């Protein structure tokens, strides 16, 4: 339990910055849930109880506390997570530029045009569309921003990227390098916490559970970045080239803290630098990225 206190302290630094907590006990319960998720590696309230450090004596008490937290209407997920990472925070507080992939139901507002959703833009195979100087979302208008839309000529997949800087074909490459898309998909499924195993039917409770997963993911990703930055990747990654995501590297490092006495990296700062060791799923897959050709249409509303 002493080793989990290191994680407890770092999470308190991250989550305690929000002024939206209706009750400070809600914060400590969230921290215990995040620690339980990381240490047990599973979506199970009962298995999280082992890692709680409180005056309560019985595991059932901890389980009920977790369940009440997920059902608590006073816990507003959006207000709590917003100070940690959203567009305003990235740009105004951290001074970052962003490339964020969005869904096809995102509303776009253009001067002199009717509001529409991204899915209403028709894109042929191998076609890209660049929209400069638009606003997004209908209920809470945000912008001006720039959009890059494309239909992949190889997979037929549709891409929608929003950026605070002028978009170009390079925008897609920048997004891919920064977020390692394929790694993220794997982390959200078999390589991660496997949310589908929760079997929670309430959408509100599921939203709060996703907050627990999001914070755990952020914490582990930062630890993984530090593993690479300090040159210790091969202590937790069996691949010659980086084969695991920063999320997975961080998770393995946390396990090493408990089993081998390694030290926790005392930082919760995401690095915006270029990836020093990009992950390579396979050399064949890496070569495919250079085989794409696009026809580009650009529209400026500035």
Question: Runs with pLDDT <50, length 5+?
Answer: none
First-last Cα distance: 56 Å
- What is the number of strand segments? 7
Give the class from helix and strand content and strand pairing: alpha+beta
The helix/strand order is HHHHHHEEEEEEHHHHHE
Radius of gyration: 21 Å
Number of domains: 2
Helix content: 40-55%
Can you tell me about this structure?
By secondary structure, the chain is α+β, with helices and mostly antiparallel strands. It has two domains: 4-79 and 185-260, no CATH class; 88-180 and 291-300, no CATH class. It is built from eleven helices and seven strands. It has helices at residues 4-15, 24-40, 45-48, 59-71, 77-81, 87-93, 170-179, 181-188, 203-229, 246-260, 283-288, and strands at residues 99-101, 107-109, 116-117, 127-136, 142-151, 158-163, 295-300. Strands 1, 2, 3, 4, 5, 6 and 7 form a seven-stranded mixed sheet that branches. The mean pLDDT is 82.
Summarize the structure.
The protein has helices spanning about 5-15, 25-40, 45-50, 60-70, 75-80, 85-95, 170-180, 180-190, 205-230, 245-260, 285-290; strands spanning about 100, 105-110, 115, 125-135, 140-150, 160-165, 295-300.
Search tags:
single chain; 302 residues; alpha+beta; 7-stranded mixed sheet; 11 helices; 7 strands; 41% helix; 13% strand; globular
